[in-house]
Amino acid sequence: MEESELYDLGYQGIKYTWVNNREGSHFIKERLDRALGNHQIFSMFTDMRVSSSAICSSDHNPILITLNNRCAYERRARSIFRYEASWGHIVGSKDLVSEAWTGTSENQNTIESVSDKLNKCKFKLVNWSKEIEKENRWDIERKLTQLRELQERNMGNLHMKIQELHKAVHMRLESQDLKWKQRAKQKWLKEGDKNT
User: Fold this and answer.
1) Sequence spans of domains, the chain
2) Which of 9, 29, 69, 145 could cross-link with 35 by S-S, CB 3.0 to 4.6 Å?
3) What does 118-177 look like in DSSP terms, one character per residue?
4) pLDDT for position 73
5) How do beta strands 49-52 and 12-13 pair?
6) Using only C-alpha atoms, what is the Rg of the chain?
7) Measured between alpha carbons, how far is residue 76 from residues 79, 92, 121 in Å?
């Protein structure tokens, strides 16, 4: 590190970055992981922050480096509505579609009727999904905070509680994973394989 003129950037959050996932007297936790940088990174990013979060799927805490709080202007493309595959796994989604589809329409048995029903479905699903995603984010943040607190207090005696929270967080993250897999596939189908 000294030879390369790299320095520990420090961090905020959980004191230890690794745990051996054992119980009792065999329990060990250490700070093994670090974010490193040279003097140039300090001069380029004066408001840089390093934080560690709760362990979710590994025995190491994730380390996040936030370089600044400014977002570059990015023009948003007009969004196209697509049914998210993850919605089918959420209780109530099928009822929502049925309710929107079976509602009365002024234009009975015409293409306009189908279009009206599709627009109703879209409107209901978009609003419903925003609420579901907000609840999901809050629940994940709350569970990660609980997990972080348990991991900080853990001296080998909280293994079962930590495992229960791991499972709960993973269940919530699976629906997000399905959403991003679907989006990645759509992008790949649109843009093709750039490696050839």
Assistant:
1) 7-66, 85-191
2) 9
3) HHHHHHHHHHHHHHHHHHHHHHHHHHHHHHHHHHHH-SSS-HHHHHHHHHHHHHHHHHHH
4) 47
5) parallel
6) 23
7) 8, 30, 24
**Span 58-96, pLDDT tens digits:** 788 888 888 874 544 455 566 778 888 878 878 888 888
Nearest in space to 143 (alpha carbons), one of 56, 63, 58: 56
Residue type, 17: T
CA distances to 21, 149, 160, 164 from 29, in Å: 9, 14, 17, 19
- End-to-end Cα spacing for the chain: 39
Structure tokens at 31: 């700070």
Cβ–Cβ < 8 Å for 162, 153: no
